[in-house]
Amino acid sequence: MMGLSDRQKGVINKMGFGGLIGFCVNGVPEKLAYHVVDNFDAHSMTLNLGKSVLLVDGGFADIEEARTLHPSLKEWRACFPPTSYIPPSLISAAIQNDKYSDMAHFHTDFSLLFLTTMASS
Question: Is the pTM higher than 0.70?
């Protein structure tokens, strides 16, 4: 989370994660992991962020529908090598390079990197 541009920090603030800016993240700090567990409501599939709530969509999709990416995700996916797995290091490198013409791609990168980090801890 170090070395982010001002526009990246702005997007992170709008997402409700401004408190994470400045963290040196090599993993998930224990206090943060406990906070997420304590503030996650499995019934409503939401994470209480204080002033807002993050909806965690646990829905299911038809297999054929799931194989067809939304056009915006196809565009985002084309930014990475054509493999079945995008390592977090590539997403982190894209964030550090900050060559986003569309901040929606940064939003996707940040969200995936955050969720990957949280899930791996």
Answer: no
